Amino acid sequence: MIAAKQRQVPGLWGRLKKAGRYVFNRAHGYDAAINTRRRGRRPDTYVRPEWEELNQSDRARVVATLLSFRRNNPLVQSICRLRETDVVGAGIIAQAHSGDEELDAKLEDLWKHFSRAPEVTETMTMREVQQQLASMTLTFGDGGLLLTRTGKIQMVEGDRIGSEENFFNRPGSAQDDPNLIEGVEVNRVGRPVAYHIGTRRDGMLQDVKRIQARNFIFHRKRIRPAQVRGVPELAPVLNDLQDLDELDSIEILSSKVAASLSAVIKREGAMDFELAERANDDADERLQSFEPGQFQYLEPGEDVSVISAGGRPNTDIIDYCIYRLRKVGSALGIPVEWILQTIGETSFSASQGMVLLYQQTCEAEQRNLFPVLSRLWRWKVTNWIATGMIDPPSGTDPFNVSWQPPSFRWINRVAQVKADAAYLTMGAISLDDVCATFGNDVGSTLDRKARNIVLAKRIAAENDIADWRELFNPLTTFANVNLTDLIEMDKG
Predict the structure, then answer these.
(1) Residue 1 pLDDT exceeds 50
(2) N-to-C CA span, the chain
(3) Under a CB-based contact definition with an 8 Å cutoff, are residues 154 and 145 in contact?
(4) In which band, very low, low, confident or very high, does the pLDDT at 287 lie, cut at 50, 70 and 90?
(5) What integer pLDDT is reported at residue 27 of this predicted model?
(6) Which residues are within 8 A (CB) of 225 and not within 5 positions of it... i.e. 6 or more apart?
(7) Residues 59-96 as b or e (16 or more Cβ within 10 Å = b)
């Protein structure tokens, strides 16, 4: 019979260790709150608002860096171009829904006239204003439209909003006002009542003026409900972009070294040679370069060693850079294939999946612009009513407007046309949706089509063509009909 093993009772130190593990493991309900040696120190537990995490000085530094990247970094150029061209396209079109067709036509005509040169400098169209608004949040984080007394708007970039700065690039004393947060004046509940907007001179914000909130349309993206200022969208990936830029520079340098012959001369007793060289006025006797097809004789005690590139450039760096670019694209909702323009290198089904994924990003960005455009519409309609340009009938709402963004085209255009035709027949989409894809509205499209028909009829009559429809080279059509019905039609 085997005796049972006696259970060992832990000592005092063992009980303390066990109790410590229990206490400290139970201290945090989430592993994310635990600091370990492998994960390093996590941020402190003091939760600060965003205007403390990114104050005015830090904001200016981040914006200046991003603007430099916008000028010189092709990746940032590509990201900004995609935001402007794919979100705005040919322009986001206004569609009035006042309840009166004549009033709608008048409002849309006035808006088109205003859209030709809506900005105070008269150098941008409404489409260009929309593009600037779409890409402004990438580098500046926020900005807006200043509503002037002339009836035109003035674009204000986010770096112009803030307190006046001194020569040390620090905000002035106005920043001590608790109701003034990074140039935005708020009331007790956090509602903006005024914006402090200045002019940049020599890198400093000067001539700051207080603009009431009703005269300024502020545009930004929130990441927190109580957020006052916007954070540049490229700020979280700024280090990744800089790392990629530095890696690119290093690999280019290594490629140049690998493509050239570099050598060093080693000497015995280098000090003696250096003293002799300084005493010798004829510097041409010293070997300083190699020429093709020539033989050079070294001095006694000298030896030539060729500098090797050591396997550079790194052939695996491309995959690593694409991985880093995927991180950048995931933060912005842009597939890396769009940033690098390599969408055609994948399969057709994979390309369609990327298009649908990117389409969601573009549609979300378009919806972000609708509130800004709607407030701008309301301001212009108010001015038109005040000046007597329109007289809304009773029971109409001239401020009711919808915005038609450009649709996103498929890769297979034939399939897209068939799908649009089917959806139009079903009533799932309207002719407005189809026309907006090409940057037009229904009125101009139908008017152009009517003029084409009139022209076709005139040319057909001049050339003795029986049917003007033949000028359009119609496709052969087929119809399924019952033979009995066809015979009855023929008898009739």
Answers:
(1) no
(2) 114
(3) yes
(4) low
(5) 47
(6) none
(7) bbebbebbeebbeebebbeebbebbbebbbbebbbbbb
What is this structure's pTM?
A: 0.72
pLDDT of 257 strictly over 90: no
Q: What pLDDT shows up at residue 441? A: 72
pLDDT at residue 301 greater than cutoff 90? no
d(CA 80, CA 66): 11
Please name the residue that has the structure tokens 């106005």: 174
117 pLDDT tier (thresholds 50, 70, 90): very high
